[in-house]
Amino acid sequence: MSARTETILWIAQRASAALLAACVLVHLATVIYAVQGGLSAAEILGRTRGNGAWFAFYSVFVLSAALHAPIGLRSVFSEWFGWRGASRDIALALFAMFIAWMGMRAVIAVFA
Amino acid sequence: MTDRALKARVWRGAAEGAFREYEVPRHASQTVLDVVTHIQRVLDPTLAYRYACRVGMCGSCAMTVNGVPRWTCRTHVDKAAKNDRIEIAPLKNLPVIRDLVTDMREFFDKWARAKGRFEGNRTKKDDFARVRPESAARMQADAGIECIGCGVCYGACDVVSWNRDYLGPAALNRAWTLVMDARATGRAERLRAVAGDAGCHACHTHMSCTERCPKNLSPTAGIAGLKRAVAKAALRGEL
Lengths: 112, 239
Known about the structure:
Oligomer: heterodimer
Distance between the termini of chain A: 39 Å
Distance between the termini of chain B: 61 Å
Number of strands of chain A: 0
Order of helices and strands of chain A: HHHH
Strand content of chain A: under 5%
CATH topology of the largest domain in chain B: Fumarate Reductase Iron-sulfur Protein, Chain B, domain 2
Shape of chain A: elongated
Order of helices and strands of chain B: EEHEEHEEEHHHHHHHH
């Protein structure tokens, strides 16, 4: 992997971390707000279905996580287990797609 | 001089070996290097160790004292020993040649890999470069240029122990001082050399190098500077 690609991955991880920090705060605040008022699942779905802003926010959340976690695992795998090279990067690219798929599946299920 | 004795456990061997214990008489203001020298001159002439200046200028006497990398010439036994016991081992993260002597080649080879050699574009026919000492870049370069290449930071760095390709704090600090040097050429090549998994991006900012540097330098700050410079270069398509 070239120095440029590794640098882009580093930037992507830092940028996704910044997004995640904001997303986690908003998410936690929303969860606390939702349970305080005693909202039922049906009432929550009533608010999320067809809500474009909600969909955009959680899409950003999911895609940031899908980007952030595998890049971090690159270092963990190489430093703790000595796993480097193309096999590690391909496995992590698949893992990133898995997180994105699982996350977006959940977001779409609550949106649609 | 006191009649107390110090029990010094000293590494004997190379990669394979064991600690051997010696009893060394205690003296006022005794340094760890004094202890090693006493062992070699009085108790066991086969002990191999390395030193030169004895006054903290050359950086060649760095060893691991009670688990901490230090200049032995500037480490008082009073400060380092616990219950009149001390453990002296070679510097970590480097191959051991024999006893307390490490092979520093990979350490200095990494300075070369990090493009740590100054190259300018002026000749002796040109006028002096005018560099304002108070300029931000020069001040950042000045903050890192007093490194004497002792290897203490390299021995203290966890990332080096996990990733044998990692350039290490000293080489990256050197590269940073050149990136900040207005006279140095080859900036893009240098940034490319220090980027990525074996370079500045591998640093976890544990700051062990900064904690242990006997010159009170902060390679961590230099590495952070490199991360910023490399990121900007990558985004501008200059990497």
